[in-house]
Amino acid sequence: MSERGKLIVVSGPSGAGKSTVVFKVMEQRGDVCFSVSVTTRSPRPGELDGREYFFIDHERFQEMVDRNELLEHATYVSNSYGTPRRYVEEKLNAGFNVVLDIEVQGARQVSEKMPDAVKIFIAPPSLEELERRLTGRGTESPEVVRGRLDRARQEYLEADFYDYLIINDDAGHAASELNAIITAEHCHFSDRAQLLRDSH
Amino acid sequence: MSERGKLIVVSGPSGAGKSTVVFKVMEQRGDVCFSVSVTTRSPRPGELDGREYFFIDHERFQEMVDRNELLEHATYVSNSYGTPRRYVEEKLNAGFNVVLDIEVQGARQVSEKMPDAVKIFIAPPSLEELERRLTGRGTESPEVVRGRLDRARQEYLEADFYDYLIINDDAGHAASELNAIITAEHCHFSDRAQLLRDSH
Question: Are B163 and A188 in contact (CB < 8 Å)?
């Protein structure tokens, strides 16, 4: 893999099936990987440092923010999460298309720091279907489900800066679209013009 | 097929294998077709009006030019060729992705009249390989081959307004890239934003 990979930012409501779609694409092609985030929260049983997350303390996290070492970051309750720029760059240079599964606000931050990032919004076929999926899990209270639906509506209003929209009515079909987008993004004339000059 | 198709402009040197690549994609998906050009030249044995070309006289051709009924047109020796806008529009509205196999100058004309056209340049892996392919046909004189190579060099210099570049080192691989580009172009956020609003 000599060609530099693409940074693929994926957003969408919880319950849209983002992970399922990305994992399907990973099965289809070996040049796609998830980024690994840094977090200040403690590892849960079974989590490995460098696999699920890079586990760091608040002091180191703040240092990374100050030194512009994070492509985006956010704090939920008392825990902070961020995307380490160096990790992403190393993977891109190794030829991997690096997927960031992040929220709309984070996508906006990444987009400013990495204008070449490919921004893909994955949505369920309808909010009714999203409600069914979230309720069907049986793990979320009605209040949580309602909160997620409100959040989805808000995200839809802010999503117009994404490059692509995939409606996940069928995970196999959605994965084939994501796969095609990654392939097509590598075919841009500007990325390949050197090949033409070399063959001149 | 309810979604409007995309206009796909394909250019590249004679011998780059454009037709082979497009025909392979047509085998893979039923929503791709070639446009049918108008021409003032006479039908050759076996050619059918409306299949290979629409055969028209010089007077009608000039009328189509004057009425802006052609997306692009060009004259070679004493025969004129052009792409009829209405035919293309009907196919696009029927959901077909319509492929125009035209030269760089024609692509520029189409691009001005149809800014949404997807412009793809298909090139051989090298000019040496192009020379081998053209010579290997055994039908072209050395002068013709040399002329085609000069023309290819000139086209490369003018090709920077294309959206995508496909290097046809292997027709199967090139077809998979063209296929992916067509799929990805249908996933653009701006084309699908209405789906998100409808599901709101």
Answer: yes
By DSSP bridging, strand B70-76 and strand B79-84 are antiparallel
pLDDT tens-digit series, residues B108-148: 999 999 999 999 999 999 999 999 999 988 888 999 999 99
Beta bridge partners of residue A167, listed in sequence order = A123
Residue in B160, B163, B196 nearest the CB of A159: B196
**Residue among A166, A179, A200 whose CB faces B127 most closely:** A200
Whether residues A181 and B187 touch (CB distance < 8 A) is answered with: yes
pLDDT at position B1 over 60: no
**Quick one: which of B9, B8, B77, B12 has its CA closest to B39?**
B77
Contact B184 A177 (CB under 8 A): yes
Q: Which helix (H) or strand (E) holds A131?
A: helix A127-136
The beta-carbon neighbor of A164 closest among B121, B176, B189 is B189
Q: What is the pLDDT of residue B138?
A: 82
Would you list which residues of chain A are within 8 Å, Cβ to Cβ, of chain B? 121, 123-127, 153, 156, 159-160, 162-167, 176-177, 179-181, 183-185, 187-189, 192-193, 195-197, 199-200
3-class secondary-structure state, position A167: strand
Q: What is the mean pLDDT of residues A171-192?
A: 97
Three-state DSSP class for A79? strand
Q: With contact defined as beta carbons under 8 Å apart, do A180 and B184 qualify?
A: yes
Q: Are strands A79-84 and A37-39 parallel, antiparallel or unpaired?
A: antiparallel
Q: From CA B169, how far away is CA A195, in angstroms rounded?
A: 12
Q: Give Cβ neighbours of residue B62 (< 8 Å, ≥ 6 apart).
A: none
Q: By three-state DSSP, how is residue B165 classified?
A: strand
ipTM of the complex: 0.92
From the list B167, B180, B200, which residue is nearest A153 (CB)?
A: B200
pTM, two decimals, is 0.94
Q: What is the pLDDT of residues B8-22, one digit of tens each?
A: 999 999 889 999 999
Amino acid at A19: S
Minimal Cα distance from A189: which residue of B?
A: B164
